[in-house]
Amino acid sequence: MKKVLRDLRVGEVSFPNASHLLLRLVSEEVLPPIVPGQFVEVQCPTSGQTMLRRPISIHYADPEGRAIGLLIHCVGEGTRSLASLHVGDTVSCLFPLGNGFTLPSGRQRCLLVGGGVGSAPLLQLGRELSQMGHSVTFLLGGKTADDLLCLDAYRPFGRLCLTTEDGSLGTKGFVTQHDVIAEPFDLIQTCGPRPMMQAVSRLARERGIRCEVSLENLMACGMGACLCCVENTSQGHRCVCTDGPVFDSRDLLWT
Q1: Is 136 left (phi over 0), alpha (psi -120 to 50) or beta?
Q2: I need a surface site. Which of 42, 99, 199, 207 has the fewest CB within 10 A?
Q3: pLDDT in tens, 67-77
Q4: Thinking of the domain 109-251, which architecture would CATH place it in?
Q5: Which architecture characterizes domain 4-97 according to CATH?
Q6: The model's pTM
Q7: Are 100 and 38 in contact (CB under 8 A)?
Q8: For 72-112, what is each residue's pLDDT tens digit?
Q9: Most distant CA pair in the chain: distance in Å?
């Protein structure tokens, strides 16, 4: 799949909450094909401590507007520096990277499970599944209501179910404790904290449902050269940045 290194212009900047940033980046040229679940390696603004690019999931792709959206958790020096960008600035991006989620044929009942900022790639996934005629249910969870981001963006593409550990929004508890998890589904696709994905994968395996997970291992190069994102699988050690980030949960040895 074609990858491009391109300076993208900042078209919009917003802050869903105090620790998250939503960027709309606009290209002067046509976007390459992007599969839901792929990511971007973003060059951070000069801060003196951020030589490496940062891997960010693609929140949405807008081919007609030649734009992509990035939902970013500002937790370190690099990602916090991205919050200093203004409309009109440019940022160097290498994309699209990795292998994304499966877009099944026919009409299937799809459950998309996200935890915190891990819900980011599920927006584009849900949009494309819905456009293909699949039945989409989003199940998004967080510690508090503040962790459930950009909810209105998901509503046009499927049913939206929410959980919070403190009960401040939706059902109190973990995503695996929501009633919707017991409904019949043909496919589960998930991204978020590793313990959450492990729990979702176990439930899927017990019920004989195919499950795909998008891993969030630490990455440096995004090209399979540095080997810092290697994951142990049934096919041996695989680079998450090139062989993933999306894997069939049955191939992962942590389940």
Answers
A1: beta
A2: 207
A3: 999 999 998 88
A4: 3-Layer(aba) Sandwich (3.40)
A5: Beta Barrel (2.40)
A6: 0.95
A7: yes
A8: 999 888 888 999 999 999 999 999 999 999 999 999 999 99
A9: 51
What is the per-residue DSSP string for the chain? ---EEEEEEEEEEEEEETTEEEEEEE-SSPPPP--TT-EEEEPPPP-SS--S-EEEEEEEEETTTTEEEEEEE--SHHHHHHTT--TT-EEEEEEEESB-----SS--EEEEEEEGGGGHHHHHHHHHHHHTT-EEEEEEEESSGGGS--HHHHGGGSEEEEEETTSSSSEES-GGGSGGGGS--SEEEEES-HHHHHHHHHHHHHHT-EEEEE-----SSSSSSS-TTEEEETTEEEEHHHH-BEEEGGGBTT-
- Burial category of 202 from C-beta neighbours within 10 Å (exposed 0-12, middle 13-18, buried 19 and up): middle
Boundaries of every domain in the chain = 4-97, 109-251
Q: Tens of pLDDT along 198-222?
A: 999 999 999 999 999 999 887 877 7
CB distance 200 to 211 below 8 Å: yes
pLDDT single digits (tens) 11-51? 999 999 999 999 999 999 999 999 999 999 999 886 556 67
